[in-house]
Amino acid sequence: MERRAFLQGATAVGVLGASGVVAGCSDGGGEAPPALSVDDLPPLSGDLTVYLGRGEGGLYSHVVDAIRERNPDLNLSVRRGPSSALANTLVQEAERGGVRADLFWSIDASSLGRVIDQGLARPVPAELRNRIREPFRFEAMAPVTGRVRTVAYNPEQVDPDAIPDDIMAFADADFSVGWAPAYGAFQSFVTAMRVLEGEQATLQWLRAIKPRAREYAGELGAVMATAQGDVDVSLANHYYTLRLKAGKPDANVALTHTRGDAGALVNASGVALLDDSDTATNFVRYLLSREVQSYLAEEAYEIPLVPGVPGPEGLPSLDSLQPPRIDLTRLGDMEPTLDLMRRAGVL
Amino acid sequence: MLGKFDNWAALAAGLLLGAIMAPTTAVAHGDEGDHVAAFQDHLADYEADVEELASRLDELAERYRREGKAGNVAEFVAAWEEVEYHAAVEAVATPLYPPIWQAISGLRQAVKDGADAETVRARADAVVAALREGLGGLKLKASMRRAGAEEGTGDGDTGPAAAFDRIRDHLDEAVAAYDEGNTEKAKDLVRDAYFNNFEGLEGELIEQDPALVTRLEEAFNAGLLGRINDGAPVGDVRGMVESMKEELAKAETRLKESADSSGEVF
Questions:
Q1: Which residue has the higher pLDDT, A347 or A256?
Q2: Chain A residues closer than 8 Å to B130 by CB
């Protein structure tokens, strides 16, 4: 099974393409054109307030700083904080008379979902939306980059052919699992499972895995523990394994994916436009430019969501993955998920 | 070895505490009250509120055990919504607010389902734990405000250098708190240094020096917190912190070298 072994000695460079199997709120619009260069974009000017979810080691801040430097007539104010906290702030600002930001760049779709659910996001202009790959086109958010859920496994301990390609079948497997239940990415994964499979099936899955699971504070820790042989497999976003392999090419860890279920969820960072100004809309065009997308793919191992930009080294193309059909903005409905996890004794 | 840590579960729970760096904001439910603006001066009031709520929960669980039925959970909810602590935790320690409601929801469900007394007691205890977690968040935030160390959410330096500075400051403050006998505050500061600062750096650091990440992970979680949990002499804790600061200096150098050699955005 070639797909299971791509990280073992892999040098494959993912060339991303529209898979047609991921779904969100796609509204058609045809194939997206190749990403524009910033040289093709209008200069930004005027006032702009951005709420920026902190993450990715400050790389998003580098992007914002670079846009500011390139546009001296742009009076850019940035408020940084955890994405979930900024989403709460926006909701509260709205309740008090109006949001103070023009644009919210969140590291995860669930925080955007909270803002969208409150009716704070303006529609993404169709021309801009259609520059994003199908099926990552949403009415109220513009995804910037993606990250995919993966199964990281220790090839010395697990035969990759023994790893199910159905995440629900993990409940019947016998290998030990590393996970980080308190991590937002893990909770989004469970939310996707709840949406796709239903509450009862998710509860049973959590309860079945729990006796064989070891809990880690973060997903990097879970992946490192897999490489060290402390657990057989771990459930984590793709970039932890890619980063570990970059630093330690002989690390005993490889990646595989499930198919068409929550175990292969592609989540996204993204932007909600909070006003209709050209400056805000054009700021998003910069985020979708060839240069910014390449930078985030190379430095943060994130998956570009515009055509013509290579994905991170070591990750197969989206064409070869089979993410589930799910509206990413539904991942913001976290409370029932936390309740399920608590009932299962996972939280 | 990471997998041999014993404290991961506790640390995972600390994630929420680590996330209390949220900006102070208005509450979603009605007026927040003047006390919220000066929340650091009202900690004793909030602590009294929490103890009052804990007492109510104890009575509720005890009555359930004794009489096979609970007191009215709705009455507890009304009391919880009434206290000043409610507005403070919602506005100041925002990420710790939803878990309180989630714990209450768990209690309400157990009562509604006619669960056994042990389960109801456990759910009530979970609410108390969530309330106390929120109080701990308020205390940590207050200590940072007093020290002038409250993290801004403006447009200041939020790069790796600032994160390393915060980590070092937190570790020094943790030693001072431990020396004063304030073990909980010391642990909160270590957790905050790890979850809200170091964890954001280690993804990139792992590419540069995986062994260094492993050593620092172990130092944060097993080494330092383990010593504090074990009640080690303050000299041992201080020595551990000094050793960690040497490792952090290496990490900062590695990341700076990496940044110098990485590409530009444009």
A1: A256
A2: none
* Spatial distance between the Cα atoms of A131 and A175, rounded to a whole number of angstroms: 42
Give the DSSP per-residue string, B29-94. SS---HHHHTGGG-HHHHHHHHHHHHHHHHHHHHHHHHHSS---HHHHHHHHHHSHHHHHHHHHSG
Cβ neighbors of A339 (< 8 A, separation 6 or more) are B102, B105, B106
Residue of B nearest to A239 (CA): B203
| Res. B53 pLDDT band, cuts 50 70 90 | very high
Nearest residue to B9 (alpha-carbon basis) of A340, A217, A219: A217
Question: Which of A66, A230, A248 has the CB atom closest to B1's CB atom?
Answer: A230
Which amino acid type is present at position B139? Answer: K
Q: Enumerate the residues of chain A whose CB falls inside 8 A of the CB of residue B258.
A: none
Is domain B160-262 annotated with CATH 2.60.40?
Answer: no
Identity at A336, one-letter amino acid code: P
pLDDT at B70: 59
Q: Which residues, at least 6 apart from A323, have a Cβ–Cβ distance to it below 8 Å?
A: A19, A21, A22, A148, A260, A264, A265, A266
CB atoms within 10 A of CB A97: 7
d(CA A224, CA A200): 31
pLDDT tens per residue, range A293-339? 999 999 889 999 999 999 998 898 877 888 998 888 888 888 899 88
pTM more than 0.80? no
Between strands A233-237 and A103-106, the pairing is unpaired
Q: Given an 8 Å threshold on Cβ–Cβ distance, is B266 in contact with A70?
A: yes
Contact B3 A78 (CB under 8 A): no
Residue B122 CA, distance from chain mean position? 21
pLDDT score, position B86: 87
Whether the CB of A249 is below 8 Å from some CB of chain B: the reply is no
**Which among A70, A95, A218 has CB closest to B199?**
A218
**Residues A127, A100 contacting (CB under 8 angstroms):** no
Task: Indicate yes or no: CB of A182 within 8 angstroms of CB of B266.
Answer: no
Q: A246-255 burial string, b = 16+ CB within 10 Å, else e?
A: bbbeebebbb
Task: Give me the residue from A81, A217, A228 closest to B3, CB to CB.
Answer: A228
Give yes or no for a contact between B40 and B78, defined as CB atoms under 8 angstroms apart.
no
Among all residues of chain A, which has the CA nearest to that of B159? A58
A227-241, A249-263, B181-195, B231-245: lowest mean pLDDT where? B181-195
Given the DSSP bridges, would you call strands A233-237 and A177-179 parallel, antiparallel or unpaired? Answer: parallel
Indicate yes or no: CB of B200 within 8 angstroms of CB of A55: yes
Q: Poorest-confidence range of A15-24, A149-158, A230-239, B51-60?
A: A15-24
Give B-chain residues touching A182 at CB under 8 angstroms: 12-13, 15-16
- Cα dihedral A202, A205, A207, A209, rounded to 10, equals -140
Residue linked to tokens 């910069």: A286
Domain ranges of chain B: 5-146, 160-262
pLDDT tens, position by position, B145-175: 665 444 444 444 557 888 899 899 999 999 9
